[in-house]
Design brief:
Length: 135
């Protein structure tokens, strides 16, 4: 039941795309991550995911498959939302997303998500982490 200083927690790690847990709220967790360049396209079928930008500017890329009325064809729709310092964005469950940063900037993120949420959904990648250190 002590206050948690977020800026101070960000000084405790440097590895990018590596979530560190700073708090647990029932079945949810608060995690910090330093990110740069591009992550991995993935989705979480059952969980929403909140990203708050503590430092820098985040590009959240989204992709959905739209069913067309011709011969069961699908058309991928892709768009981007720019999330500035001090802003947050919620990624809805089931929507493919890929966080990116601009011009090589390192961005500091606070995420709020379920403990059960997998880092890269059902995708396995060299960036995928299965355990988040507690700091
Ligand atoms: Ni995600």
């Amino acid at each position: 039941m002590k206050p948690i200083n977020i800026k101070e927690k960000f000084t405790k790690f440097n590895k990018q795309w590596y979530p560190h847990q700073i708090a647990v709220v029932d079945d949810m967790q608060v995690i910090l991550a330093k990110v740069q360049d591009e992550f991995v396209w993935h989705k979480h079928e059952e969980e929403d995911e909140l990203f708050y930008v503590q430092k820098g500017t985040l590009e959240m890329h989204f992709r959905t498959s739209v069913q067309l009325n011709v011969q069961n064809a699908n058309e991928a729709k892709e768009w981007v939302e720019i999330v500035k310092e001090g802003e947050l964005i919620v990624v809805p469950k089931g929507v493919e997303h890929c966080p990116k940063t601009q011009n090589g900037e390192e961005v500091h993120l606070l995420l709020f998500e379920k403990l059960a949420t997998k880092h890269t959904g059902e995708v396995t990648h060299e960036k995928t982490q299965t355990e988040y250190p507690k700091i």
